[in-house]
Write a structure and sequence with these properties.
There is one protein chain. The protein has 724 residues and is α+β, with helices and mostly antiparallel strands. The protein has 5 domains: 87 residues, Alpha-Beta Plaits, CATH 3.30.70; 89 residues, Calcium-transporting ATPase, cytoplasmic transduction domain A; 102 residues, no CATH class; 132 residues, HAD superfamily/HAD-like (Rossmann fold, 3-Layer(aba) Sandwich), CATH 3.40.50.1000; 97 residues, Calcium-transporting ATPase, cytoplasmic domain N (3-Layer(aba) Sandwich), CATH 3.40.1110. Helices cover 49% and strands 16% of the residues. The chain is built from 24 helices and 27 strands. A hairpin with a 2-residue loop joins strand 19 and strand 20. Helix 11 runs antiparallel to helix 12 and helix 23 runs antiparallel to helix 24. The relative contact order is 0.10.
Length: 724
């Protein structure tokens, strides 16, 4: 057999191999990966290849990251192996666009529409046959069955393809998944219907086949729909990366180049309003930057010569000259993206209830059907009757109700949470939320409002407040915005100027006014680590101190207390300074807190908690929280938080009401109870119905009706959640 050279896959695999320091790397996007079993199958299969050191599949993004040694041609073997396992691969490109999951959702929706249309029309013909039983002659009945077949068979071929394709690939790779008995039941029902109609026996089960597919597609589409938003976090981080860098050449000329071309040692110019393209050291210039990417703190950080600047930081004021310390792909932002993907991958290993049930269910279905066929033949039944009974067993045990158990509850629970302002983004988020044993909060923007407020306005006279406001109205600095909020709209000062990292100067009614840091005004003062402060000086008068604070959210204390009342210990992890963190922790009664943490340190802490069996819920809102949100057992982000944090989280709270966490926790536990009830109902149905089918007391048509009835019971039980 000729080696796979890329043409058969539509791309040259070798061209996408990246050379590292001690190994080579290949990133691929795979199709059809849906559950934890797929992860194990892909990783174990590829890891057996010679030279492969590690394999990691991110279920949310469909990305397989392979590290290997040896020739570049190993990439060809990797792609061939993935294809043989039933997971076709293509180059992984995290750029925005229609993802394979989006295409799958549209495909399932079209299949669902076709199955629904066919079910309605075939059932009309079937009802006519049932109503005319005893009065309709065989020729008319046969004609009605052929008309049903003309509608049903093309619909089954189209709507059933997702199950046929998945089941076929599973068998080809030596495994058996839930789609195998589904496909077999549908194909046998159609084949038997054609045979019965052609032989003039007067029985057909086309309605059973299309109805079965209709119910199954509802469950499959609901599951994919709930997962549609998962895995966006790593792609969204690309938006935080500067696309263009302003490189200073040896002759002093500034040249715009792609950020990916920046190398360690390059001199870079970062104008105000632009992002830092790579991790670097400040060589010249001084001014504030938005450093929330690293610290999560809303207050700008002042950079000066010798300071470290990280990729993704936004320069707020004066131009900065930097010397690159790393290439863009090795920057802090790139590391955060890798941490987010690693967190999503570890979380996607969670095995859902339905996956666990399927492992035992599928072999049992085949065993019962095979024993039924063999048993009837052994006891002398005609082959036709034995096959009919075996098909009845397959149809009556078809995992339609089992496939709806979890999606039906999830959709009802998600709809109820939506009314409370909580958006559920991950299909298994509610399952994981019901199992949490501890809660971790970020501070800035999560427990607090995330913006500075003037705390001592009652201690500042009206003249001083208005003078500061006249300067502040011309600035976008967060502390200036807080002053304007306290003073209201009004005129601005004359002869305004702003000193980067220092403050504002101007003239108010003929008098010089300065507003800024203590160093800017040459004030020898220490407001304490817990305080953000600025100073105002009018002429030669004594400076006036302005104190700012990031106030706690109104429902923060109640939410923390409510969680502790449920036996869930809470703690605070923040990138902010020790003083503000300690102040917030004390106000909320939290005895466990840590400050000054970087994203990697938050992840390490959460990993330790998971290793200790604490199953932590992480609540955050900033870019620097995204890796921790992706790593936690389950995570919540606020709607006003950074887009990347919302993408990485499992649930998003609209309206920023922390108390919604308590409601989400309660509903998740109710949903878990309904899921367990649904599994019990599905099992009770099988216990009653299967023996009837095994002993030949149920025809395939009655089996299809029973199967549909069990699905309806499961859905009605799920709807109870909407009223509880």
């Amino acid at each position: 057999m000729a080696p796979l050279d890329g043409a058969s896959q539509g791309f040259d695999a070798v061209a996408f191999v990246r050379a590292g320091e001690d190994a080579k790397h290949l990133d691929l996007a795979v199709e059809n990966a849906r559950c934890a079993a797929c992860i194990a199958k892909i990783e174990d299969g590829v890891k057996r290849l010679p030279g492969v050191k590690s394999v990691r599949l991110n279920l949310s993004t469909g990305r397989v990251a392979v590290t290997f040694e040896g020739p570049d041609d190993t990439a060809v073997s990797i792609i061939r192996t993935l294809d043989q396992l039933g997971y076709p691969a293509s180059p992984y490109t995290p750029e925005p666009g229609e993802s394979p999951r989006d295409r799958e959702e549209k495909r399932l929706l079209r299949a669902l529409a076709v199955a629904g249309f066919a079910s309605a029309n075939v059932m009309l013909l079937s009802i006519s046959v049932w109503a005319g039983e005893g009065e309709m002659d065989l020729a008319t009945k046969t004609l009605m069955h052929w008309l049903s077949g003309l509608i049903a068979l093309p619909a089954v071929a189209y709507a059933g393809w997702p199950f046929f394709e998945s089941g076929g690939k599973s068998l080809k790779s030596g495994g058996v998944n839930m789609d195998v008995p589904i496909s077999l039941a549908v194909l046998l029902a159609c084949g038997l219907s054609i045979y019965e109609t052609a032989m003039g026996h007067g029985a057909a089960y086309f309605d059973a086949a299309v109805m079965l597919l209709f119910f199954l597609l509802i469950g499959r589409w609901l599951d994919v729909r709930l997962r549609a938003k998962a895995g966006q976090a790593a792609r969204d981080l690309a938006a935080l990366q500067a696309r263009v860098a302003h490189r200073i050449d040896a002759d002093g000329a500034v040249k715009a180049v792609p950020a990916g071309e920046v190398k360690p040692g390059d001199l870079l110019l970062v104008p105000p309003g632009e992002r830092v393209p790579a991790d670097a050291e400040v060589i010249e210039g001084e001014g504030p930057v938005d450093a929330s990417l690293v610290t999560g703190e809303s207050a700008p950080q002042t950079l000066k010569p010798g300071s470290d600047a990280y990729s993704g930081m936004v320069n707020l004021s004066a131009p900065l000259t930097l010397r690159a310390k790393a290439a863009s792909q090795d920057s802090l932002l790139a590391e955060i993206a890798r941490l987010v993907e690693a967190g999503e991958q570890s979380r996607s290993r969670y095995v859902q209830y339905a996956d666990r049930a399927a492992r035992a269910y599928v072999p049992a279905v085949f065993a019962m059907s095979g024993l039924t066929l063999g048993g009837w033949l052994i006891f002398g039944a005609a082959p036709h009757d034995a096959v009919m009974n075996a098909i009845a067993v397959l149809i009556i045990t078809c995992p339609c109700a089992m496939a709806l158990v979890v999606p039906a509850v999830q959709v009802v629970a998600c709809g109820r949470l939506y009314k409370h302002g909580v958006l559920v983004k991950s299909g298994d988020a509610l399952e994981r939320l019901a199992l949490i044993r501890s809660v971790v909060f970020d501070k800035t923007g999560t427990l607090t409002e995330g913006r500075a407020k003037l705390a001592n306005a009652d201690q500042i006279d009206a003249e001083s407040l208005e003078a500061a406001a006249r300067l502040a109205r011309a600035s976008r600095h967060p502390l200036s915005r807080a002053v304007v909020e306290a003073a209201g709209d009004g005129p601005v000062a004359d002869e305004l100027s702003e000193t980067g990292g220092g403050g504002l100067s101007g003239t108010v009614e003929g008098r010089s006014v300065r507003f800024g840091s203590a160093a800017f005004l040459s004030v020898n003062a220490d407001g304490g680590d817990a305080a953000q402060e600025a100073w105002l000086q009018i002429g030669e008068e004594a400076p006036v101190r302005f104190v700012f604070e990031d106030a706690l959210r109104a429902d923060a204390a109640g939410t923390v207390a409510g969680l502790r009342d449920q036996g869930l210990p809470c703690e605070l992890l923040s990138g902010d300074r020790e003083g503000p963190v300690a102040h917030a922790a004390h106000a909320l009664g939290l005895t466990t807190w840590r400050s000054g943490l970087k994203p990697q340190e938050k992840i390490a802490h959460i990993e330790r908690m998971k290793a200790d069996g604490e199953a932590p819920l992480m609540v955050g809102d900033g870019v620097n929280d995204a890796p921790a949100l992706a790593t936690a057992h389950v995570s919540v982000s606020l709607g006003s938080g950074a887009e990347i944090s919302r993408s990485a989280a499992d649930l998003v709270i609209q309206g920023d009401r922390l108390s919604s966490i308590l409601e989400a926790l309660r509903i998740s536990r109710e949903a878990k109870a309904r899921v367990m009830e649904n599994f019990a109902l599905a099992n009770i149905y099988n216990i009653i119905a299967v023996p009837l089918a095994v002993f030949g007391l149920v025809t395939p048509l009655v089996a299809a009706i029973c199967m549909s009835a069990s699905s309806i019971v499961v859905m009605l039980n799920a709807l109870r959640l909407a009223r509880s």
